[in-house]
């Protein structure tokens, strides 16, 4: 009889917290435990803990949890019984009928437990799994529990080993491909066994295109590998547009009887990296347009769900993505199946660091043994997938040349590469790096390629290793909150205007180490030797809420928010990555009751090269990509100055930062002022102070006539504990953007207060502009976006008409919405399968009487889901929201929220969904459930 693989995900019982030893036993009464279905993440239901660390999502993932399941295995004592876990967070101990049958020491890794010696054949058995996340280290939300699938494999004593079929295509041409199938067969019997391995290759249509058969002898209690090659004529290549998949079916016979069989999927393709020209697939250069994806699925948590993952990938692919990096861990196996099918490359990454984030608690000596043990499972599991094109052994790991710490050394990287290449010599082995200086050490010598994170840090490596390929493994790390806009625009990538804990979605904000998307587009155009970029990140994820680590629970890095709703920059990427697909996207929304008469910049993301913007039918001009608007001139340059001490202050307005006006007497309120010689609009003041200013405070005052002064900025002195106005190399600098303040002035004065004995009033440069002076850093945005910076807000209709090569490609409209009157439901799918895991993602929007989304609506929604489905989760993408993902009430955020509905297993009846909000028409929806 052939072996059998059983779904083992149903009818589990779960209890949180430590349990007595008897919880491992069959007799234990678990009737009070919760009934759960695997995959299960015990922490995603919360509650959020406001005081807990934002870095790991403020959710209760730390602790112990127990799972139990009863099962029977038919009588027949020569069976082998295995439990195959795709991932358990973390440190699982698997007990069968009270006895420890196996355990694993890395929460992201798939593993097999041999249950055979503990099984009572023909009787009831119990498996109990103890899970303990307390020692698991994480820089993000890891989830908790048996969060990936489990299978039970029942096999003959002679069977195909776990992940025992390995298919490669050693030679590929248009007329023929060689397919090599290596089959590892385990023999658990006490005598040698002759066997016969028959392989059938089928093409993507299911036609048999090659067969092979070979004999072998598996020694008693041993293993044999049967290695055979076949030809496939005129192979249909796997590529991004045509992800053609072949199958190899393996049947093992012994003494004329079929003892085991399995079918694996593979692809026929060639790829290569060229250190000077980038990445090639089937002989053609492919620009990798990649994203990093963490393993959580937003409101569904870490519990893997195939449809939720497929949806993420579909959204990414629609944007133009052709590659993902599984940052920073082994993904669920289904991720690779999906990418095989969808034509998406995978940078398959095994670890973040090699410390507690890899569950290595045993220190430096354990780094290599731990890595080798995990890589063995990792590579065996994933090596048949055509989507996998890189094995990555880590991310941003420091060096530890002498191996006294847990960092990179020559020996460790050599050891890891050797382990991988013995299991698969068809893919390069690399790592994600971040410290250019590390190339001083020969640690990278063993690796085939490296990825570099941010800021063109790969430059040093390229000098040191001109013959090794490079990828941009993390780019951008732009931060934003969907639907949130702050004024005036950011003047610096790290100044996060608005101060509400949300980050403006004008896509001008990043972190100190990272950049806005446009910089990376430019870099990838210039550096063709780089295979492509992997943006940090495709989706927001739970945890790591830089730049608001204390208060928020989820990241700001995503191109798409945590609820799965695209942010503005989704359209920026799409416009650039899919130049032939129509994208015409306007931002911001157009509901600014308190901005009437104020400058409210409008950006358009389009694949067109120019566009004309209309406000209430009036043209606001046409903009063309690549045209950087001229910078305003400095009104203060060489203008007359006055000072409190009567000394000359020319040095403060001479355009030279190396000279300064300096008032050396301590105390008092020394000031310097410039006379613009006529009353002018003042929209921006840039101030560069000298170091000797110390921690003084200062005020900026303006006047039309030199007698009547108003204060436009008052900066407190810097005191211990306060951030004050900050220091920078070369002295403090500050920019005051007054666009919203309508300042008209002839005189501008800087007046110091609280000068300590050691401080001097010291102004290197005072610059005054009548229009916003945007830093040169943002010039590149004009190449990829169309920007109207000076639109004076009035409610109504914004319309943009976009052109490409002179021809109109389309138009787009953004209207001021009236008060929300009803809710609109837009499901991604209206037909589900009764599998108990099929999902419909229903976008909920508050709309006005005309159907415009009300972008400021934050009303509380309540949900009712009945019939053949249930509420799986709800979220709204607000990084600061601590509302439960599993409640039947949840607020809208900036007009939107996402409701996730799941079919019930075996129930073939429609799902009725009703969503309500006070004062609005409720919305209803019916979803069909059928086989
Ligand atoms: C990188 C790191 C990522 C993430 C990212 C945020 O340095 O590799 O895991 O933390 O920064 O920008």
Protein described:
By secondary structure, the chain is mostly beta strands. It has five domains: 4-155, Sandwich (Jelly Rolls), CATH 2.60.120; 158-266, Immunoglobulins (Immunoglobulin-like); 271-478 and 514-557, Alpha-Beta Barrel (TIM Barrel), CATH 3.20.20.80; 641-769, Jelly Rolls (Sandwich); 822-929, Immunoglobulin-like, CATH 2.60.40.10. It contains eight helices and 53 strands. It has an eight-stranded parallel β-barrel with strand order 21-22-23-24-25-26-27-28, surrounded by four helices. A six-stranded antiparallel sheet has the order 3-2-4-9-6-7, with no helix packed on it. Helix 1 crosses helix 2. The chain starts with a strand and ends with a strand. Residues 721-729 have low confidence and may be disordered. The site of beta-D-galactopyranose has 11 residues, from loops.
CATH topology of the largest domain: TIM Barrel
- Supply the CATH class of the largest domain: Alpha Beta
Q: Spans of 5+ residues with little confidence (pLDDT < 50)? A: 721-729
Number of domains: 5
Q: Give the averaged pLDDT, no decimals.
A: 95
Q: Give the terminus-to-terminus CA distance.
A: 30 Å
Content of β-strand:
35-45%
Gross CATH architecture of the largest domain: Alpha-Beta Barrel
Number of distinct beta strands: 53
Which structural class should the secondary elements be placed in?
mainly beta
* Helix content estimate: under 10%
Q: Mind telling me the CATH superfamily name of the largest domain?
A: Glycosidases
Largest sheet features: 8 strands, parallel, barrel
For the largest beta sheet, what order do the strands appear in spatially?
21-22-23-24-25-26-27-28
Number of helices: 8
Bound compounds:
beta-D-galactopyranose
Shape: globular
Domain F5/8 type C: 615-771
Keywords: Glycosidase, Hydrolase
Protein name: DUF4982 domain-containing protein
InterPro entries: Beta-gal/glucu_dom_sf, Beta-mannosidase-like_N2, DUF4982, FA58C, Galactose-bd-like_sf, GH, GH2_Domain-Containing, Glyco_hydro2_dom5
